[in-house]
Structures are given as C-alpha cells and as structure tokens.
Amino acid sequence: MRRFLRLLPVVPSVLLLLLFLLAPVAWSFYASFTDAALSGRAAKDPQWVGAENYVRMFSDDSFPLAAWLTVVFVAASAVLGQNVLGLLVALLMTRSRRAMASWVGTAVVAAWVLPEIVAAFAAYAYFNREGTLNQVVGAFGGVGPDWLYSFPLVAIVLANTWRGTAFSMLVYRAALADVPRDIAEAALMDGARGWQRLAFITLPLIRSSIATNLMLITLQTLAVFTLIWVMTAGGPANASTTLPVLAYQEAFKFGDIGYGTAVASVLILLGMVFGAVYVRLLREQRP
Amino acid sequence: MTTKAKLGADIALTVIGICFAAPLLWLLLAAVDPQAGYQTKVPLAPSIENFSAVMTPELLFQPLANSFLLSAGTAVVNVLAAVLAAYPLSRYQSRFNKPFMYTVLFGTSLPVTAIMVPVYGLFVQLQFLDSMAATIFFMATTTLPMAIWMTKNFMDSVPLELEEAAWVDGASTMAALRSIVLPLMRQGLGVVFIFVFIQAWGNFFVPFILLLSTDKQPAAVSIFSFFGQHGAIAYGQLAAFSILYSVPVLVLYALVSRGMGNSFALSGAMKG
To answer: Which of B40, B106, B113 sits opposite A225 (nearest CB)?
Structure first.
C-alpha cells in the first residue's frame, strides 16, 4: 500500500498520456478499418469496412507516391542535408576563430528557433519566382525557374535542411567537445592526415551521438507538415505530398477520416519502429 | 592548427553562414519597406508603416494574447505534471521506474502530425473541439514525455542528503519537495518551462486543427489566414507581423542559451 501511495504523483501524467496520446493512437488504428467521415451518414454511424482502406492505399496512385516522396524527403533533407551539414559546421567551428563560430552559430540556430510558420514564409519568399534565390541566379547571369512550381521537392528539401541543421550542429558540437584532445594530438604525431583522423578517430568516438542524432532528426522530419503546407501545399498535383500532407488532405479536404487515419496509422507505425530503435540505442549507451 | 587551415575553415563557415542568413534577411528588409515584394532589396524609403498597419487589436494583440495563454498554460501543466511524476521516479527505487522511463522516452518519438487526424476525431467525440483548455492539455501531453525526461534528469542531480535532513526534522515528502528540491532545481525547471513554451508558441498545426473560432486562434494560425487573404499583396506587413510574433521566442531562447551554455538544454534532454 505504501509503495502504491508513493507512485500516486505519477498519476496525473499517466492520465494525460493515456487520454491524449494512447487513445488517439488506438482510435487511429480502429478508425482506419471503418468508413468514418467528416460529414454525412458515415460521420454519425461509421461502418466497419475491414481492410478496405489499406487495400485502396496500395491500388491508389497517391499513397505509393507519397510514401516514396517521404523517403526521399527524409533521406535528402535529414540524413544527408541536416546531418552532414550539421557535422561539417561543428567540425569547422572547432578550427575557426571564436567570433566567427559564434556568428555562424547564431545564423544557423535562428532558422531553427523561429516559429515554424515564420520559417515557412521566409522559405516561401526565398524560393519564389521573384525571390532571393533567383536574384542570386540572376546576378550570375542566369534565369532561375519557378522553384516552388517546377522543382517543389528540391525546394522543400533545401528548406528543411536550412530549418533543421541547427539541431544536428548542437548535438555534434556537444559531442566533439567531449572528444579528448590528446587522442587527436597523438594521431597528429603519428602523421595521420586530417581526413584520416576524422574517419578513424573522431567519427568512431562520437558514433553514439551520430546514431542518436540520425534517429531524432528522422522522426522530426517524418512529421514535417507546416513547412510543406505553406510552401507548396503538397502540389503541384501531389508532387510534394508527403505522408503527413496526404493524411491531412484525405481527412480534412476530402472528408474521408477512415482513409486519412489509415495513412496516419502507417506513419504512426513508422514512428514506432524508429522510436523503438532509438530507445534501444540509448539503453545500450547507459548500462 | 596552421593559419592556412584556420583561414580555410573561416571562409567555409562564412559561406555557410551567409546561406543560412539569406532567407532571414528578406524578412528584416521587407518589414521596413512599404513597397516590399519577394525580392531582397534595401528599401528606398524605409518606414515603420508596415508595423503600425498590423498593430491592431484584432490582427495582432488578440492573437498574441491567445498564443500567450496557450503557451503559458501548456508550460504550467507540463512543469506541474512533470515535477510530480519525476519525484517518485527520481527518489524511490522501484522496478517500475526503468520500464516507465523508457516508455516515456518512446512517447517522445511519436510523430505528432500523424496523430492529428485521430485527435480531431477524438475531440469531436468528446466535444472538446474549439476548447482552449482541451487544446492546452493536448499540447501539454505532446511535450510531456520530453518534460518528464528532462525534469527527472535535473532532479537526479539534487543530492538526497538535504532532503533526508528535512525528513528528520519532521517535514513531509511533499513539503521537502517544495522547500528543498524545487528551489535547488529552479534553473532546470526554468529550462523545461521555456523549452515547452517555445514549442507551444511556434506550434501551428495543433491549434490550426483544434481551434475553430477566430477569437481563440493564436498568432501562428491568424498569421496564416492573413497570408492567405493579403499575403499576395501585403508582403511587408506579413514580414512585420512575422517579426513581432517571433521576438518573444528569440528572447526566451537567448535567455536560456546565454545563462546555461548553448547545448545545455539539449544535453539535459539527451543525456541520462
């Protein structure tokens, strides 16, 4: 009884998590097997339709396309863009003047701290036909395309890289600060060149940070909605519709909650897989 | 480090820094340019016209007040629930602690945008739609796993001996928590509060789905409607609006990072 009473303060948190996190997830899986809708007869009394929504997912063109776009978006903007650029900036900072490192750090972090809707407006203006990017292209004598219309995927990948690199940079700065100096210096004595030191000494030393960072930015990027919604709204013609955008459109634009929750359930499952790997990684680091 | 390598690093960083600052430069210049377009250019006749145009009660002040209510409410719920939950997890050994903490950690990884469709369905069923309080509790829950995780780590670093002394003097557990533990970890609590506040302040998607009436919507949503209605004409006003809305979180972030080192909040969240 005493032991039970001790755990009493945990109850409010558990209730919140059950009601607002677990219940929606459970409801999502349930509703994905029904024809639930925003309005009409099916809104009041949704019918069980079995796996119909999931069958439709794979016969429809929009789901496989959205799944593929999501993979490309995550791989290009998170795993490649944010991760590599973040590591590069962190490494360069260890070698540059302090004032320089702090100036660049501020610029990178600013894009990340701004409210997402403001960052999305700034990116929208930047990639606009008359925007800053095409001014730069023009200054070199070229004529830039309408990025948001002709290359929407490129635009959202670059925008998300710009927006999220700060997180990886902060993780890697903290990790590099923990790398013992004398190890790097001993390697320098042995005549190891810069990239050899990086590949065989620095990177292996921070590998747990790399793994954790990759998991976290993959999860964050999987959930990106506002940036894409403001910049392209998923268009033109689904060319930049990732899974969160598709789930939103099906549920709220077309009123098909059943199909929308089916798409959402796939996303939730994906998140769970990455989340499980992430928890495992952290457990191994802390015996 | 040779001077040449140092110079190379400085040049590379400068290029990267300019690339990151470029999209923000437009925001700053367009805000003071009444004739702003999507181009980045120095205004011919800079003025604060754009700012005075958006500084009206219904356009700016009401939405900002809503943002504040939403964010402060979310942060208060988070800190209260997280402190209560963290206390037994930090102070008593139990075989539930580890599984609970890992479940919480797992909860941090759920993609929130993915659960918005089911949450909308749930809110319709419970008649929570367009309720500020329900939205606050939902937003608090999405950041709660991270808040519990951070709070427990901060609490772990407060030594147990001080509390034991208070217990000997006859203080109850909750009294010891309030008078000994919380004051000692107030910096950490500040970090958790600001961390949650910044996230809630910038959140667009959740209030966009759950709050329907204009007089309840926070700035993130009202700025989006403004962009939809006037964005194609009033670029300068949009930029001015964006800046006014962003200033509070920039200040709060500067406060946290200056007081405690850039990666402090992050390491509190990531390390055990």
So the answer is: B113
Q: What does the domain layout of chain A look like in residue ranges?
A: 71-285
CA atoms of B75 and B71, how far apart (whole Å): 6
Q: Per residue in A207-251, pLDDT tens?
A: 888 988 998 899 899 999 999 999 998 878 889 999 999 999 988
**Bridge partners of A48?**
A34
| B121-174 pLDDT per residue, tens | 888 888 999 999 999 999 999 999 989 988 988 888 888 887 888 888 877 878
**A141-149 contacts at long range (C-beta below 8 A, 24 or more positions apart):** A148/A124, A148/A231, A148/A232, A149/A236
Q: Give the Cα separation of A52 and A27 in Å (integer).
A: 17
Give the residue from A55, A49, A25 showing the smallest Cα distance to A37.
Answer: A49
Q: For residue B54, what are its two tokens?
A: 């958006």
- The answer to whether B151 and B82 have CB atoms below 8 angstroms apart is yes
**What domains are defined for chain B?**
1-47 (no CATH), 49-270 (1.10.3720.10)
Of B13, B107, B109, the CB nearest to A96: B13
Pick the CATH number of A71-285 from 1.10.260.40, 1.10.3720.10, 3.20.20.140, 3.50.50.60: 1.10.3720.10
Q: Give, rounded to a whole angstrom, the gap between the first and last alpha carbons of chain B.
A: 34
Taking CA–CA distances from B240, the nearest residue in chain A reads A118
Closest CA to B83 of B172, B184, B159: B184
User: Do B27 and A121 lie within an 8 Å CB cutoff?
Assistant: yes
For residue B122, the tally of other CB atoms under 10 A from its CB is 22
Q: How far apart are CA B191 and CA A282, in angstroms?
A: 22
Token couple for A177? 């600060």
With beta carbons less than 8 A apart as the criterion, state whether B90 and B173 touch: no
Q: Around Cβ B200, how many Cβ atoms within 10 Å?
A: 28
